[in-house]
Amino acid sequence: MTIKPPTEPGSVITHVTPVKRDVTYDHRAQQAAMPITVHHRDGSTTKSLMVLTPDQMELYAIQLEQVIAKRTTAREQGLQ
Fold first, then answer.
1. Which CATH number belongs to the domain containing residue 57 in this structure?
2. N or C: which end of the chain has fewer CB within 10 A?
3. What pLDDT, on a 0 to 100 scale, did the predictor assign at position 38?
4. Does residue 3 belong to any structural domain of this protein?
5. What averages of pLDDT result for each successive group of 10 residues across the chain (80 residues)?
6. What pLDDT is recorded for position 23?
7. What is the domain range of residue 62?
8. Following CA atoms 19, 25, 30, 34 in sequence, which dihedral angle do they give, to the nearest 10 degrees?
9. Which residues, 6 or more positions from 80, have their beta carbon under 8 angstroms from its beta carbon?
């Protein structure tokens, strides 16, 4: 993993996306690790991990369920 210092050109992060790989769970640390790609303003990318606590996992699971339901409703109404 490469970490870019904030003063380096292109170090500004625009967004992150999940990598199509399995999320791992460390029961000892009680954390999940999701592989992600970090996208920088200059178009470069960096691979990293997003580490989630149990509370964060539950919150994001609820939020994802809600947005999936909204997407399904929109499709049923012909909005997509």
1. 3.10.450
2. N
3. 95
4. no
5. 58 93 95 96 94 96 96 87
6. 94
7. 13-76
8. 0
9. 71, 74
List the structure tokens of 60.
Answer: 């994001």
As for how many domains the chain has, the answer is 1
Measured from the Cβ of residue 38, the count of other Cβ atoms closer than 10 Å reads 19
| Phi (first) and psi of residue 64, to 5 degrees | -70, -40
SS (H, E, C) 10-76: CCCEEEEEECCCCCEEECCCCEEEEEEEEEECCCCEEEEEEEECHHHHHHHHHHHHHHHHHHHHHHH
With tokens 């920088």, the residue in question is 40
Residue pair 54/30 in contact by the 8 Å Cβ criterion: yes
